[in-house]
Amino acid sequence: RNRGLSSGDTKRGKTQSLLSRSSQSKYLLIMFSPCLLNAAVTWLPSIYLWVISPIYFLYLRYNNKGYIRMSCLFKIKMVLGFTLILLCFSNIIFTLWKIKGGTPQDPEFLIRPTIWLITMILVVFLIHSERQKGIQSSGVLFIYWLLCSFSMVAQVSITGFPEDTFHHLITYFCSALIGAQLVLSFLADQPPFFSKVLHDSNPCPESGASLPSKATFWWFSRLVWQGYRKPLELDDLWSLGKENSSEEIISQLEREWKKLFELTFPSETDAFLQRHQNFRLLLLKAIWKVFNITFLLGTLSLIICDIFRFAIPKILSFFLEFISDPEAPAWKGYFYAVLLFLSACLQTLFEQRHMYVFMVLELRLRTAVMGLVYRKVLVLSSAMRKTAAVGEVINLVSVDVQRLMDAVLYLNGLWLPVVWMTVCFTFLWQLLGPSALTAIAVYLILLSLNFIITKKRSHFQEEQMLHKDHRARLTDSVLRNMKIIKLHGWEEVFMEKILSIRRGELQALKNSGFLFTVSLVSFHLSTFLVALVMFAVHALTDEKHVLDAEKAFVALTIINILNRAQAFLPFSINTIFQIPKAERRLCVTGEECISVQDGTFAWSRESSPCLQRINLAVPRGSLFAVIGSVGSGKSSLLSALLGELSKLEGYVNIKGSVAYVPQEAWIQNASVKENVCFGQRLDIPWLDRVLEACALRPDLASFPAGIHTEIGEQGINLSGGQKQRLSLARAVYKKASVYLLDDPLAALDVHVGQHIFDHVIGPGGLLQGMTRILVTHAVHILPQVDHIIVMANGAVAESGSYQELLQRNGTFADFLSHFRKDSHEKGSTTLQSQAEGTRMAGQLTEGDRVQYGRVNATLYLAYLRAAGTTICLSVVFIFLCQQVVSFSRGYWLSLWADDPIVNGTQQHTGLRVGVFGLLGCFQAIGRFGSIAVVLLGGVRASQRLFQGLLYDVARSPMTFFEQTPIGNLLNRFCKETDAMDAVIPDKFKSFLGFLFGLLEVILVIVVTTPLAAVVVLPLMALYIGMQSLYVASSCQLRRLESVSRSPIYSHISETFQGSAVIRAFQSQDQFIVQNDSRIDEHQKASFPRLVADRWLATNMELLGNILIFTAAFFAVFSKPHLSPGIVGFSISMALQVTEILHWAVRSWTDLENNIVSVERMRDYTKTPKEAPWTLPHNGIGHTWPAMGQIEFRGYSLRYRPELALALRNLTLKIHPWEKVGIVGRTGAGKSSLTISLLRLIEAAEGGIWIDGVNISQVGLHTLRSKITIIPQDPILFPGSVRMNLDLLDEHSDDEIWGALEMVQLKSFILGLPGQLQYECSDQGHNLSVGQKQLLCLARALLRKTKILFLDEATAAVDPQNDLQIQAILRDQFADCTVLTIAHRLQTVMDCSRILVMDNGVVAEFGTPPQLLAQRGLFHRLAEESGLI
Description:
CATH class of the largest domain: Mainly Alpha
Strand content: 5-15%
Radius of gyration: 40 Å
Mean pLDDT: 77
Structural class: alpha/beta
CATH architecture of the largest domain: Up-down Bundle
Number of domains: 4
Shape: elongated
Number of helices: 46
CATH superfamily of the largest domain: ABC transporter type 1, transmembrane domain
Largest sheet: 6 strands, mixed
Strand order of the largest sheet: 5-6-7-3-8-9
Distance between the termini: 135 Å
CATH topology of the largest domain: ABC transporter transmembrane region fold
Helix content: 55-70%
Low-confidence stretches: 1-32, 267-277, 587-595, 821-844
Oligomer: single chain
């Protein structure tokens, strides 16, 4: 009897629960009454069309795309439309005929066909108007036909077909025609007659797709299938639409930016990293003005999506109520199942539309900001170029731009989660009453914790970015100057410096990642904590409060939404916090072009003046020479004229176009012709004259492809003289009015220099009649110039003609007196960057390689091995454990919900609460452990792979750097490394989490409703098939995107280095067009990739919604055998399956897309490498070489297998301590001797012996550490003066000061802030070329080895300093073997012997008197130099 009472109480409790909601059920029944449905059938489609038509006609009026010719599709639509009109008219006539015949008719039979008739006439008119306005597929009419179809189905389902034959047939035919129209709406018409699409070889199919195709992204399917059948190539991708092109987007943002900038900062002129608060928000304001409509449309889609998101818990509540009521009719259950399915589908479609709109916005925004950054790089002031480096700019466009994009993408995360939380708390209050308030307290605590974490994490992220910038700057400098590093054997030193910075970067990443792990766990824990607190308070505060299935699992569904909101908010805040940092780094402004009267100039407004009281009046057509000692301000004067310096006082003006030849030649990675023409119209006769005058004809004759031969980056495959002449030819070809020439003769041989002066610069040259300002140390040409300016200490010391200055007997006369003897002897050849002209090939550099096919499994194994086997096994085990605990927690809650109600209460509530809480804690611990271990493994893998990439690149020979564009390498060291650091570990963590979550969901559904397996298994097959289709295309698109990114980096890097030349030539527009073209090529690959993501997500989620329907349908079917708790557990898990399935596949495909970064970082593992740096057993002591004897035995050198020998059968012997001068014309092979001696390229035949040891048997670093070379191009690295002088930290400060004193730099360094700790900028741009050359000499004095190789070591210093330096070298290296490539022929006249090279062979070798007596090649060179 007690058992019976208990059962009765249970039934009574359930009955009361059902009665409490009876009002809701009655309301639903009223909603779906036949009368109301008939009204909906009659009015809803028509009301929709009549309301939307005026707006749509207005849209068509202002969006005319051109008319479409009558197609079969249009004709069929019109025929069907007129047929429907005829049927409606017939229905009206028949009804009137019946009434006239005396048969009473219901008004419905007259009103409804009349409404339909009028609406069908409007439809036909719309179809015609759309054709005239070029609409290929009508979304408005698709929705109308869809509503009509639903209405007809509802009418037939409720009332059935009319009984009388006529109305039966009319209804039947109308239904069929409406169905046909709906099917036709899925199709798209041909493009408009005058559409640009007709002229496009491969237009994007989106514009012509139908609404269903656009909603589900099926217009992308053709490309997916094409990518599955064969690897995609760039030519397979669609053309970029105008709305996504750089030309359209960048101009809009630049226009708004300038407008806002002028309004906010009318007086700002120079700020690369502005710190004003208003300035930081400037970029966001400009972005908002350009992209606000797109942003608002995406936001609207998200709001509609959220309406359906919150409808699902309500529908689930009704469904569980149905499951709990044993007497409820089955149709209600199936109806709720369909409703769940439709709501989930609509949520999916609107959410993916929102994501698509925002992804396209991100793409456009990336285009705009990257273009804006490039334009600002073009106008970057000299002062800011000294404080920035190429690597930092690459970081801006690779990392900071992406962060800004993410911030815009998640901008809605600031307010939308608040709305979600409000709605969720309202629902929870309805379910659980006041106990829902406890959720607010829990979330407030968690939010406070996460705000603290976010703030602390932002500190670590900023620290990481500082390390990243420092690493990027140093890496860029190392890659650009790899020749110098290899010549000195410094690879390991710089590798350690980079890795040291990298360790600091990864430590900051670990600290940030640890905090992020705590934050993530708190998000995951919040679902459990809120559920635990609410259920515990609800159940324990009042015994009458029972926790049934509806309360438990509807509350869990709401909490999941709430948890997403709570996770979304801090993540969005954290992302938004990146905006000021990214924007501050992206905000770049330029300075106005300025220039000369009473001028005072400085490198920046904050620094002291470098030029003072400059007065300069240059008559049109005159030739001015600027002379002075090192650091006197000669190059600064030209920079001032170019507007590269900040004008503090005075007035500057230059009339006419300007051409500029910098002291350090800037060469593009392009053909000879493209370098000379520099974007101007090709004038072949003038080009021939320029090449002849610049003495480039002999060089071109030796190039395999002649004028079409490709030049490597920075002219790496040209000699210094060739680079300088090419730079000069570029200026001459322009036919400018004003020529600013910064010591172009310094890098040229004597005869070539004289030829250049006579045929180009001098009074009888091509530039006669042009205004020329020539900075020079060549005093022998001064009598031929019109005017001479003598610079000293940043001011004009003297000015006048040659004769006037001599008569004054002042500074100029003193300058000449120090170098009277060798005033005619200027000539040089430079150390070639591993190249004489003879070895060049037409095509030199290689583009970034594109891999094809699916990602190889070995890449995953390589990554996992880098992470460590122990970590990998630990991750899988911990994920498995925490998912088992998660399943146990859900199952325990279902048992709790199914506990019988006895006397209005549930038994064992305390036990249920305790175990539920304990399981949640175990899950939280497991979650933290799994994420933390993945993070540690990711950091370890990233470090090892980065180290491997660095080692592979450093061990590559110099030919590798010739053939590999710098952008390819920077792409790997910046963007791909960033993916390794942040993206891949996150995707691994996400994939494993969702994979185990998916297994849990499938297990729950199949165990609860075994029949669901019939649908689940085919769905899994569809998922796998779709994933295979997607991955094949997506991976290739990711590769194409990565490959197309490298040219952008190369171009930005090249522009940064040559911005002064570009501005001087006024070629900014040309370079902007080139950059925009590269960005468009990149976005051409990016756009299909983002569409691929949306295609996958939409279709995956739609398939997942079928699983929700399956679980609900079979729950209704198996209702008698299932408890409400189990059903609630099953459905609540099924509701998560859409998101879990989507993100599981998405994480996997994202992982596969990004694992390409591992592939690209390992690209160079199999490239040819240099000989070993050190050999353990070579029998060489530390004192080798003790004498410095060098012997060539039948030595031959070939630069590449397909090229001729550069050195042929050299046999000669250089005695210990001997001083040998090396002379010869350009291309004779002088610099090849340097390359041979230091083994930058291995011998083709024969060998070289130093002190009797074959150098091929010596480790490269051992060899190179024993030879000191002073190249012509002075290279300094980012870092202190001390670091640049003593890289290995082997010398004391006293020794360093001594070396500086010897090279006349001690007083200069003492005057610098920080002295020896003064920071040199990248490439040493904050020092003059002469000062850098002297620092390199000081470095050699400190190094002091038994063999010294001087290659144009004093090319950039004045004659007076040259004499002093030569005396120092003779004194300090008296007991060393010194090889000197002649700079001034007078220099080598003091040598013991002179080696004369000609065409790669030894032409003459002997003492100077002997060679002069032979009257051979050396005699001719001496005659040309004026020595005899």
